[in-house]
Amino acid sequence: MQNLSLSLISGIAIGGTAAYLGCLMLSRRMALVAGPLGHLSLPGIALALIWGIDVSIGAFPFVIIGVILIWLLEMKTRLPMEALTAVVFASGVAIAFLFLPMGQAETALVGDISQANLSGTAITVLASLAIVWILKKTYPRMILGNISEELAAAEGFDTRPYNFIYLFLVAVIVALGVKMVGGLLTAALVAIPPSAARNLARNLRQYILWSVVIGAGSALLGIVLSQITGYPAGPLVILVSTLVFLCSLPFSR
Amino acid sequence: MGQEDSKILEVRDLNVTIEGQLVLENLSFSLQRGEVMTILGPNGAGKTMLLRALLGAVPYEGQVSWQKGLEIGYVPQRLPYIRNIPLSVADFFALRTDVSTDVREMLQAVGLEAGTENKLISDFSSGQFQRILIAWALAKNPDVLLFDEPTTGVDVGGEETVYSLLTRLQRERNLTMVLITHDLAVVHRLSSVVLCLNKQLVCMGHPLATLTPENLRRLYGTEVKFYQHHHGH
Predict the structure, then answer these.
(1) Cβ atoms of A30 and A241 closer than 8 Å
(2) What is this structure's pTM?
(3) A210 neighbourhood in chain B, CB within 8 Å
(4) Rounded alpha-carbon distances, angstroms, from residue A247 to A186, A197, A240, B202
(5) Is there a contact between A241 and A218 (Cβ–Cβ < 8 Å)?
(6) Which of A59, B127, B152, B224 is the most buried (most CB within 10 A)?
(7) What is the pLDDT of residue B77?
(8) Among B204, B172, B168, B169, which Cα is nearest to B187's?
(9) DSSP-derived secondary structure for B107-145
(10) SS3 of residue A32 by DSSP
């Protein structure tokens, strides 16, 4: 029972925070960056499983490397992000399969939040709160910078530090997210709730609110369903949010 | 006031290189307070890049010096990403942290009706959206307005009013303006100086004296009908 409440607390924190950050990612066609980053984290997850440490901690150095790569490549080349990520991050999956313990492949690929323990949950909640706090501080400038670098320049601020903060937060949320949905499904955590919220919202506040509610609610419902059905929680969390997205479609204008 | 006092912008030997390609070359000019400068040139001439350099939004070599303490407003050609998220007009104005403006008053000043502030940005036509962008740029009471192609996406009826709006704003607020345009009529009607640009400075001066057939040929290479020019950048 304690395990279930810890999973629920972790899941709601991850789901809500990823959805909040996802609102920002949608404003610059970057929601899918979280996917390749998740793939790149797979070798880290594999190592964490071999060594018996928290998968988020194993994933973190790998996503940080990925984020620095994206940042440098974007600054230097301005190549389309999709092309960069496809080339670099598929190799993450390939490398992981060289030494991933096959018995734990499911945990690595689609997550296993039922293994949440007290310290892991504490790290998750604290990291989520930190992300939310930083986002709240930087949101207006992040959005403005995403919309137009020229408008930001006319406002007198440089978008580059904000881009880096933003990518760093994406790295943290991906590292947290792999715990719940594994290396394959992280993009859905940040992409689906805001996509559904966009269909429902009439302004920015509603958009963020709906997104967080859908993200946290899907995590809650997914984990509970997993307890009842015995299926892994990660895919169920994603499927619940997909269902919400489908239900939101008639409201899209 | 002497000539030096009214000079608000000095550009000297400006070079901009993007991905190894020189897009602006040895550009030098200055701008006086209250002037309306139009920038005329073919596609790919570096017009938008010049505005970006003036804003400091792109790395450059050379010198771009604005008079100290100036507020600069910028009206972009379009903002493709803004429609990705549900942003109301009021949300859009709230994104800037440095001004506390009466949004409704600003919107009225550009001819948009009351209640507009609660509508979603994505619900506006491109002509109306351009007015919102103008209002946004005016909200911090700028001394200078940089405007990238006011005509884009505005129908013929609406175009006239955007220009009369600009004329009125320029008069009321003593705005200095820099406008990119493809439209010769606009150059003649609105501007006191025209800068013909094709990576380098081709010609510059009062429109009547500057836009000679010979200069236009030099600017566009051939005798194209530039006023029917389609832009795809």
Answers:
(1) no
(2) 0.85
(3) none
(4) 21, 11, 11, 58
(5) yes
(6) A59
(7) 82
(8) B204
(9) HHHTT--TTGGGSBGGGS-HHHHHHHHHHHHHTT--SEE
(10) helix
| Interface membership of A163 toward B (CB under 8 Å) | no
- Shortest Cα distance from B57 to chain A (angstroms)? 5
Comparing CB atoms, the residue among B51, B56, B91 nearest residue A203 is B91
**Per-residue pLDDT tens over the stretch A3-32:** 899 999 999 999 999 999 999 888 776 666
Chain B residues within 8 A of A146 when measuring between CB atoms = 81
Measured distance CA(A127)–CA(A14) in Å, rounded:
9
Using CA atoms, how far apart are residues A127 and A114, in angstroms rounded to an integer? 19
Q: Is A204 on the interface with B (CB under 8 A)?
A: yes
Size of interface A-B (CB pairs under 8 A): 81
| Residue B89 burial (10 A CB sphere; 0-12, 13-18, 19+) | buried
Here the tokens at position B185 are: 């009529």
Is B87 in contact with A203 (Cβ distance < 8 A)? yes
Q: Band of the pLDDT at B178, cuts 50, 70, 90?
A: very high
Q: Which residue has the tokens 């991906």?
A: A174
Residue A117 one-letter amino acid: N
Q: In Å, how far are A102, A148, A241 from A181, measured between CA atoms? A: 17, 33, 13
Contact A150 B91 (CB under 8 A): no
What is the four-CA torsion angle of A238, A241, A247, A251, rounded to 10 degrees? -130
In angstroms, how far apart are the furthest CA atoms of chain A? 55
Gyration radius of chain B's alpha carbons? 18
| Per-residue pLDDT tens digits for A72-127 | 776 666 666 666 667 667 788 888 888 888 888 888 888 888 888 899 999 999 99
Testing the interface with A: which of B84, B116, B118, B140 to mutate, by most A Cβ within 10 A? B84
Any bridge partners for residue B7, and if so which? B32
Asked whether B181 and B150 are in contact (CB, 8 A), the reply is: yes
Number of helical (H) and strand (E) elements in chain B, helices listed first: 9, 9
For B74-83, the pLDDT digits (tens) are: 998 888 888 8
**Residues A222-241: pLDDT tens digits?**
999 999 999 999 999 999 99
Average pLDDT over residues B84-94: 90
Query: Does B59 contact chain A (CB < 8 Å)?
Result: no
Cβ neighbors of A69 (< 8 A, separation 6 or more) are: A84, A88
Q: Calculate how close chain B gets to A249, using CA atoms only, in Å.
A: 15
| Chain B residues lying within 8 Å of A153, measured CB to CB | 52, 55-57, 74
**Chain A contact present for B219, CB below 8 A:** no
